Structure prediction request, 330 residues.
Amino acid sequence: MMKYLLLLCCFFFCTPASQAQHASKHTPVLLIMDTDIGPDYDDVGAMAVLHCLADKGEVKPLAVMASNKNEWVGPTIDVLNTYFGRPNLPVGVPKSSTAPDQTATQGWPAMIVKKYPHRLKTTADAPDAVMLYRRILASHPDASVTIVTTGFFTNLTALLDSKPDKISRLNGRELVAKKVKLLVSMAGAFPHGREYNVFIDSTASAKVCKEWPGSILFSGYEIGAQIKTGPRLVANKSLQSPVKDVFAWCMPMSAEDHDGRMSWDQSAVLVAIRGTAPYFGIKRGRIIIDGGNNSWEDDPAGPHAYLTEKMPFAEVTAVIETMMMHKGKK
Prediction:
């Protein structure tokens, strides 16, 4: 009887979903966020989710990287980190001349940069993302760091290509294989499609998806498209925050955002920290990138997985939007 109980307990607590939930309740996830913040404004909501769960003790943010070298990106990240009480959270940016430079057509980054405290004057003032990645990964235990990317794969392909240096005797691929526990990415459309984060830097996307020496979990376009946040946030009269300001500024500019903005990036950050259960199921296999398009091969033992619907999207929306209303520290 005792043996049966032990086996039952092992089955319950050792499933991947249970492990993720158990870890989030007891040991903060060590996390690097990599964002293209600016072309769209769901990244702002994603950073609110990150900081909310950090204040709950579920995650320890190690850095926020920008995969977009636009001049407003660094200051925008700095505004949000500062508002949420983490002004010293490291920020890294791409230094390559070929890195994407994508702007926000609504002009919201300039709006919050002018309104809220920050120290970075321009993106160029922040350090090199690849060197920051290498320094953080080298200083943490093996298989301990989760990376969530809600933008382009620009920094990650540069990290894979990085050479041994004074930070670590390992090259980039070796360092990732040794230190990274999981990569979660808002990218792709499943089972096939053409999605912004993939095609903007399609060369980097293809390289990372083919050569990453570990598991990748994708939150695809079709997931975030069903999770529309913003109306409750904007209607919250007691809240003053850059997150609310951005959504209040941008939502009226697009008819498709009348009921809220699609929340691609928030979904990725949520599962990177809390795990997939109880929010989503997964489909395992392998992503294939071809000229900015993606397709999929089912494989129960494959290195990749993408999210599928499990909890009703309305319930996931409520969870995420509540986190987006998290207040910063004074």
Notes: The CA atoms of residues 163 and 171 lie 5 Å apart. The chain is about 40% helix and 20% strand. The chain has a mean pLDDT of 93. The longest strand covers residues 280-290.
